[in-house]
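Support request, please re-run this one:
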Amino acid sequence: MTGTFDILIKRAKLRSQADQLFEIGISGGKITALAEKVTGDAAMVIDAGENLVTESFVNAHLHTCKVYTLEMMDDEGIKAYHGSEKSMGAAMTAIELAMRVKEKYDEKWIVKNVRKATAYAAIYGCTHMRAFADVDTKAKLEGVKALIRVRDEFKGIVDMQVVAFAQDGIAREPGAEKLVREAMDLGADVVGGIPWIEYTDADVATHVKTIFDIAEKYNKPVSMLVDDAGDPGLRSLELMALETIKRGWQGRSLAHHGRAAALYPEPYLKKLEFLLKKAGMGWSTAPQTGPMVAPVQKLHQDGVLVFIGQDDISDAYYAFGRNNMLECAFLSAHTLWMSTKEDQEILYDMVSTLPARGIGLQDHILKEGAPANLVVLDQPTVNDALRFHEAPACTISHGKVVDKEKMLHVVKTREW
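Re-run finished. Output below.
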């Protein structure tokens, strides 16, 4: 195979054919050659050193307006969210405690924190994020404005889908619906809700309907946090799936968390799986950030599009995190007890190709003709990639090598 390339990667191992070495040609932002031998001129040649080259990582769920706010809070939110019990019975209390930081919200300091988290994403090989910004009468539009600003700064390096997220509810938070609509007018990419925190079943249904009404008006995807507490009676995921089917929003609707599913009886979980597949919905979970987890293995085995997000970075819900999706997969391997070779491959998919599908990316897969969003790892196997969860030797976003030194500068200074 011959050609002229912007980038030519040599001596690359692929996950699907680890016993062979390949060469990958990149031109015009796309993978234009993939073979054991590629000939032609290239502006840049990268030696993979017989290590893995894979699709880049995707973070489908990060509360980005809150990153690095833990230092502004006490430990009461984390105590309530994690606590000593695995049933997460105080999850609502944790949300209410975490609200306090929003009294201090200001675009000026939020944007600096978001830059740091987004630069870390680039360093750790994550080229796409779905980024949540709280929208309510306390946060107002400060988080959305900060995320939109950073989205534009990092365009082509880390593509950010900004979610206007009604964190404190719709029915229980008068004025939130208006602010979500204003956030969409500002340029937010996704309409976000959290119906399970409403006080009554009727208000939960109103919340779901309102979010879809806004999504229809602006022709945008939907992301909702659903049923994230130790209560098997929570049913907002079911309502979301039914509304997705009713509105014809298949492939544009993404559920997040859903930890209550760990307590659902088998017949009801089967019903949910059927609805999710009919709705074409993905399910983003974060096994590393809470003491109760959704039944990830079963959902995956039964054909549900389920995957892993970062969720939080150093905030009132989770003290750690680096926007390192390999680290999330490594931690999830322990939380979920997924350690066989097959499990490790699934976990790798859950931080790369599967979340890409969940947020609507096209052809996020290593093949000719696909967008060139790739990582060149420092490790030869998936096992080693998970074991060490180090930054890739090289990240390629939209056909260009990410300037790691610039990203490190952003991390250090929080300036663009």
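Residues 192 and 314 are 22 Å apart (CA to CA). The domain at 57-358 is CATH 3.20.20.140 (TIM Barrel).
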